[in-house]
Design goal:
By secondary structure, the chain is an alpha+beta fold. The chain folds into two domains: 3-75, no CATH class; 86-205, Endonuclease, Chain A. The chain has eight helices and four strands. The chain has a four-stranded mixed sheet, with helices on both faces. Strand 2 (127-135) and strand 3 form a beta hairpin. Helix 1 runs parallel beside helix 3 (61-75). The chain is globular and about 50 Å long. It starts with a helix and ends with a helix.
């Protein structure tokens, strides 16, 4: 695809989505104190559309229009983050994508009781984890998620050993497990992985809801 046409198409798609999304915000009467977070939401969604568009290399106008409405429908239930997060993912599009997927598929009853915290520090700031699911009342971490890049975590036996030791130490000191997802898994199946994660959380932590 011609680069300039591609950029123009992306811009058109983003504007289209923003118009639709703002209509949803108005319809649901998002409260004024959440206005800033709603803008963060829009940023996340536009980035997701850009990612999805590039991945599928869609160049047909009808397909682009269909994608806009598909994204609006899929993410109209997106849970606004408790703090603005978009700046945290500038250098990690895979984490950004999975954060959006987690938020957009988070069941209402879990949202009422928990929140997702990116880049959570643990073990007296010795480590940080990509995402932590925290209890809203206590702030205690219930489970962690790592989005693993092969070259960062697994391309040598020593790195594999170090990561395993780190997980065991976090479990011993903090008391929670960490789920690991590869970048390839997230790229190809982010929504399916997020739904699987929430199903586990519901059964494990909130069996009575």
């Amino acid at each position: 695809m011609n680069h300039h046409i591609f950029i123009s198409s992306i811009t058109e798609l983003q504007k289209d989505f923003k118009r639709q999304f703002l209509r949803i915000c108005q319809y649901h009467q998002i409260s004024s104190e959440k206005t800033y977070y709603a803008s963060e939401h829009i940023i996340c969604m536009l980035e997701y559309i850009k990612f999805f568009y590039q991945k599928e290399q869609m160049d047909d106008r009808t397909s682009k229009k269909a994608l806009v409405f598909e994204m609006v429908n899929a993410y109209s239930g997106f849970r606004l983050p408790t703090i603005p997060m978009a700046h945290m993912f500038e250098h990690s599009p895979i984490e950004h994508l999975f954060y959006i997927s987690l938020c957009s598929t988070m069941p209402q009853h879990i949202w009422n009781l928990s929140y997702i915290m990116p880049q959570k520090t643990v073990c007296n700031n010795k480590y940080y984890i990509d995402f932590a699911l925290c209890d809203r009342k206590t702030g205690k971490v219930q489970i962690g998620i790592e989005c693993d890049g092969f070259h960062i975590h697994y391309n040598t036996p020593q790195k594999v050993e170090n990561n395993n030791m780190r997980d065991r130490e976090i479990k011993r000191l903090e008391g929670f497990d960490i789920w690991h997802y590869s970048g390839s898994e997230i790229y190809h199946s982010s929504l399916a992985l997020a739904k699987e994660f929430w199903k586990y959380v519901a059964i494990t932590f909130y069996p009575d809801h």
